[in-house]
Design goal:
two-stranded antiparallel sheet; globular; seven-stranded mixed sheet; single chain
Length: about 475
Amino acid sequence: MGADIGVIGMAIMGQNLARNIESRGHSVGVYNRTAERTRELMAGPGKGARLIPAWSLEELVAGLSRPRALLIMVQAGRPVDDVISHLTPLLSRGDIIIDGGNSFFLDTVRRVREAEEKGLLFLGTGVSGGEDGALHGPSIMPGGHPAAYDAVGRILREIAAQVDGEPCCTYIGPDGAGHYVKMVHNGIEYSDMQLISEAYFIMRNLLGMDYPEMSGVFARWNQGDLDSFLIQITADILGKKDPETGHPMVEQILDTAGQKGTGKWTIQSALDLGAAAPTMAEAVFARTISAMKEERVEASRILHGPGGASPTKAASLADAVHDALYASKICSYAQGFSLMRAAAREYRWDLKPGAIATIWRGGCIIRARFLGRIKEAYDRNPDLANLLLDPYFRQIVEKAQGGWRRLVSVAAERGVPIPAFSSALSYFDSYRTDRLPANLIQAQRDYFGAHTYQRVDREGTFHTEWSRL
């Protein structure tokens, strides 16, 4: 008998997934375009494991049991298409291709269709958890042909993180659904990271906390409602000193944040679908402006904000940071789940938000206690239009809003930028307001472009000759 599955791409994620699969009792064929990587794996962490090296795609495919299943772990975009184009002539009807990278969901839609035309089965599979998750248990979001999931689902569930005896893996839906959900996961991840960084910025610049204090605050928060992987690692990061200088490690890191594009894809999709995702958008733009380091340094010499403000040790403001962070986080997730709801309508996917929240509880970067609350919300109402309408989340946000508003106000008065906190509050206020100023915008559009408008007092479409009034 041949190997149970083949893995293509032996960068760290591919290596660790291959080792994870092997640790669950499966034999795994491994291949990398550059053979040296495969040799390093077999001589290092893969030594003695049931990993079977292959030195060509032909050898890899020939060494697999039928139906053959191959997991591709290469850079998204053209490299995935290149691997598929070389791979498909070697496969037979019913064989399975799994793309485990961060592919754009519309690319996956196309690849599923092209595979089916050749008699092959394709899974576009989101994998979250980084290097450690890949090795010890990630969150896995497979989408594509259901028969493909039926064939390899057992392996995927075995290698996924386990929470309360449940695997953090479930079939998401057809064609690009799995990669779409992973994309939204990453958009929420951008928001979570930005909100946490703004909380740190407030503590440092408004409250005057030192690094041991801030580390302790995040560690305490991680024992309560904010318990999450990102809060946990933030406590660790803020407590770390640079071994060379003895100064806080964070202070030695240049304030320019990188990005690989999934956050941008999330915002582009929200715009395409007409879904509001302002907090995720601000998180993306915050990274963009952070990258303008030289320009910002020059601007800091020319542009002046409010001066003379000293840090405050007000305990109430410190408590407000916690409440504002939790409320803003709720708004960010509300945007993400609303976006998935809009995508489900547009692409005819039967997405199950409660199941998605369940598989995000472990393994992935945004894993958090809070996700259990989201599952409960959708258990109460599977057709919930927005998380803010759920009784639990409504109560939390309404209770937090006093401190949240004060915090945003004080930050604005002191000139401390907190775009994600501010946008989340504006989202909450916009969503709860029954009459927005968009009536004036529509009047302006009708004035200069005859775009027409609807009236509040009767049905129909109307136009006014404004300049003749």
